[in-house]
Amino acid sequence: MKHLPIYTSTYREMIRDFELYLQRLGYGKGSCKNMPSSLQEFFYRIEQQGITEIGDITAEHIVEHHRYLKERPNKTRPGNLSESMITSHLFAIKTFFSYQEQSGNISTNPFSVLNFSRPKKTERMILTREQIQQLYGACETMRDRAMLGLFYGCGLRKEEAVKLNMGDIQFKQQLLYVRQGKGKKRRVIPLGNQVTVDLQNYYLYERSFYQRRLTNDNGQAFMLNNRGTRMLGEGFWKRLKELIHKAGLPGQISLHHLRHSIATHLLESGVSMEQVRDFLGHSSLETTQIYTRISIKYLAIQTT
């Protein structure tokens, strides 16, 4: 919501200062962009009510903003904001007021008396092997197959696929290097034979078709969009939705569901939990263990 105008200079300064604060704490780029944006939307609505002093903001203003968020349309896809998105907006506001309280800029934190319920965690959707094949069958280009290879075959996170450069893939050795994953962790992913073929076919025979104006970043990026620039998360998501629709699969499938699916399928195939942990770039086995529960439940469904 960075397009929303803020006329109160102190609010503008607070948004800039909040972004720097998040950067100093080590928040990721996405959080350093989205959390100040959530704060800007809050200040925009507060300003519309004639409130230009942070000390005049009360808990009721935050509660009213929460009601607004529950009804606000999603700007990037049909429907309203998800519960997780609303929670993210509120977390940004809560973090901001905690920072202001710690800095001594406010005597009373209006968020301290509030307790919003957290959204219930939904069951992780796992695609069957047959559904994965349906997705591959819907592919129209080598880039489509390369995209599925990155998110399913390599189990990459969205940001990892966005940041992937041509120099990060060694086709002869069949290795893909994640230079900076979640928590700035590096890892090396072994490529299966078919994934290697799919990535190499796109690289050799189709990637040049998408090249337009050559820049340093475009020249390095592995996945290019139709404009010839680095493929971003929204571009990957939109194309996956088109493949899902063509394949006749459930519309709620996301890029991250492909990562969940390969993790489950690897465990079902006998790959050790430690190997799956390293493949996904998890920091601990506890995170990976959830897929053992998913795998058992998935197998039970398949055998009924």
Describe the structure.
By secondary structure, the chain is mainly α. It folds into two domains: 9-113, Orthogonal Bundle (DNA polymerase, domain 1), CATH 1.10.150; 129-303, hpI Integrase, Chain A (Orthogonal Bundle), CATH 1.10.443. Helix content is 58%, strand content 3%. The chain is built from 13 helices and three strands; from the N terminus they run αααααααβββαααααα. The chain has a three-stranded antiparallel sheet with strand order 1-2-3, with no helix packed on it.
Main features:
DNA polymerase, domain 1; disordered C terminus; 3 strands; hpI Integrase, Chain A; mainly alpha; about 300 residues; 13 helices; three-stranded antiparallel beta sheet
Structural class: mainly alpha
By CATH, the architecture of the largest domain is named: Orthogonal Bundle
Distance between the termini: 48 Å
Count of separate DSSP helical elements: 13
Outline, from the CA principal axes?
elongated
The major pleated sheet works out as:
3 strands, antiparallel
Question: Strand percentage, roughly?
Answer: under 5%
CATH superfamily of the largest domain: Intergrase catalytic core
Secondary-structure element pattern, one letter each: HHHHHHHEEEHHHHHH
CATH topology of the largest domain: hpI Integrase, Chain A
How many discrete domains? 2
